Amino acid sequence: MTAGGEQNKVRPDRAALIQRTEEFVRGKLESEATGHDWWHVHRVRNNALMIARGEQVDTFIVELAALLHDIADWKFHGGDLSAGPRAAREWLESLGIEEEVIAHVCDIIAGVSFKGAGVETKMRTAEGRVVQDGDRLDAIGAIGIGRTFAYGGHSGRPMHDPEVRPVMHATFEQYKSSNGPTINHFFEKLLLIKDRLNTQTARKLAEERHAFMEQFLERFFAEWEGSA
Ligand code: NI
User: How far is CA 4 from the centre of its chain?
Assistant: First the structure.
């Protein structure tokens, strides 16, 4: 009775904190046009919560981290990896959330992103692995293709240049300063994702998304050559 009563006291608080965080993120990322907009965050949250059902995790942490994971992406802050966790911490502190939760969420945000083909990005906790998978699923498949071209256009990259070969970046420094054609990004990141997922649920979902990207590329190159 007591335990149940306490839980009931905690739950509405958490729901309200999630709601306020959602509004905060939505306000910040609504008009974003590089594929890291509010709807990306919305999909990552849904992916992460779905994946979380098969894992032993604290869904409050998962949901907060998914909502805040792109609040200040290094790609748009001069490569500064600490911008995201800093912005998230500031927001979570303003909500009066306990330090343990803030530290965990910020640790996830710091580690979640892809940093180059040859760079390991292992997450320290089960919650982190779930959020990372949620984010990575949104980078592949039809959505991934759309986002990749949106980002490429935003960064002024050519769509494709047959003379520029993909590069397997060995360090984050190389990866973040790369400005190769958009199609190369498929070989430098997107096609590698299915083998870098943490959970069984995500690996299963990635299969079809991966196959769809392969079909897309096959067709893209055939049309490029004029043979389709
Ligand atoms: Ni993301």
Answer: 35
